[in-house]
Write a structure and sequence with these properties.
The chain has a single domain, classed as Lipocalin (Beta Barrel). It is built from three helices and nine strands, in the order H-H-E-E-E-E-E-E-E-E-H-E. The protein has helices spanning about 1-20, 40, 150-165, and strands at about 45-50, 60-70, 75-80, 90-95, 105-110, 115-125, 130-135, 140-145, 170-175. Strands 1-2-3-4-5-6-7-8 form an eight-stranded antiparallel β-barrel. Strand 4 and strand 5 form a beta hairpin.
């Protein structure tokens, strides 16, 4: 229960930051979004290959998002562990797609009246890799359907993220396997 209370406070604070510092007007959509995201193909498990670390995900291992639909509501379920031997922690966001954005801009809420944005910056044609960002470019994720990503694909995605205005140098890889702990570029 203590962990749930801490997570709730943390996400409330993150949500307030998004509400206060990043106004999201339907008249001013982000400049870089994927075109025409097929929601059915986007659903499912996305391993977090890298992210710009922030307090809620920093230091987590074996983390991923599982995107599901439940009676018309999108559910974004985050799963992450403190160590490879600890019990996974989860939190769920309720999402909706912002109209007229090609399904690439979502609103997420962990609590009533608190929201932040989920921007699908890129998804490859086979829906095997994706880039997700945040207005203001302070947060970003490199995601994959597989828990390992080859270096050439990773570098190409970082380049694409940089072209979209994100500081790719801030991203750190998320260990998905114990052999990745302590390796260069990893959290």
């Amino acid at each position: 229960m203590k962990r749930f209370a801490w997570a709730s406070v943390a996400f409330f604070a993150l949500g307030l930051t998004g509400c206060v510092t990043v106004p999201m007007s339907p008249d001013a959509p982000p400049k870089q979004l994927a075109a025409n995201v097929d929601l059915d193909r986007y659903m499912g498990k996305w391993y977090i290959i890298a992210n710009i670390p922030y307090f809620a995900e920093k230091g987590k291992v074996a983390s991923y998002f599982d995107i599901k639909q439940d009676n018309g509501t999108l559910l974004d379920i985050y799963v992450g562990q403190d160590t490879f031997y600890s019990k996974p922690a989860t939190f769920t966001m309720r999402d909706y797609v912002v109209p007229n954005t090609g399904n690439a801009r979502w609103r997420e809420t962990p609590l009533a009246l608190v929201y932040f944005s989920y921007l699908i910056v890129y998804v490859d044609p086979d829906y095997k890799t994706a880039l997700v960002g945040y207005p203001g470019h302070e947060l970003a994720w490199v995601m994959s359907r597989e828990p390992r990503m080859d270096d050439a694909t990773y570098r190409a995605l970082l380049s694409r993220l940089g072209e979209a205005g994100y500081d790719a140098g801030k991203l750190r890889k998320v260990p998905q396997f114990p052999d990745q702990l302590g390796q260069p570029e990893f959290q």
